[in-house]
Amino acid sequence: MDRSDVQRWLDDYVTAWRLNQAEPIKALFTEGAVYRNQPYGGDARAELGRAAIVAEWLEQPDQPDTWEAAYEVYAVDGDRAAAVGYSRYLATDDGPERTFHNCFLLRFAGDGRCAEFTEYYMEEQPADS
């Protein structure tokens, strides 16, 4: 994997999130992929396998007009990569805008699909907090 391969995957990740359809999500991950969007607690809190990842994504999908996100490659070393970026949930009648700063740790299979995904994130606090 090189930087452009990883950036393409990140862009496809955002597209899949926006589409809320199984096929684009499936295309991102290997059959036995591990997906940790709650990395603390080990594999007990991870989605194990592509079917579980798709089900988790589609269980409570974010509507495309309620958020924006952008991620970029930070580093690549062989089949491993790190990416940084943000996920912003736009203000609604139910709550204020919320921005999260993200770091993704990624391991890829030879075909460019992700075999291991770990996300760390922190919510941005308003300056007056």
Topology diagram in text:
Layout: H1 3-19, H2 22-26, E1 29-36, E2 47-48, H3 50-59, E3 67-77, E4 80-89, E5 98-108, E6 114-123
Parallel strand pairs: 1-6
Antiparallel strand pairs: 1-2, 3-4, 4-5, 5-6
CATH top-level class: Alpha Beta
Structural class: alpha+beta
What are the low-pLDDT stretches, counting only 5+ consecutive residues below 50? none
Question: Please, how many domains?
Answer: 1
Q: What is the tally of beta strands?
A: 6
Helix percentage range: 10-25%
Can you give a write-up of this model?
With 129 residues, the protein is of the alpha+beta class. The chain has helices at 3-19, 22-26, 50-59; strands spanning 29-36, 47-48, 67-77, 80-89, 98-108, 114-123. It has a single domain (3-123), classed as Nuclear Transport Factor 2, Chain: A (Roll), CATH 3.10.450. The protein is 25% helix and 40% strand. The longest helix has 17 residues, at 3-19.
Provide tags for this entry.
single chain; 129 residues; alpha+beta; Nuclear Transport Factor 2, Chain: A; six-stranded mixed beta sheet; 3 helices; 6 strands
Sum this structure up briefly.
The protein is of the alpha+beta class and 129 residues long. Helices cover 25% and strands 40% of the residues. It has a 6-stranded mixed sheet with strand order 2-1-6-5-4-3, covered by helices on one side.
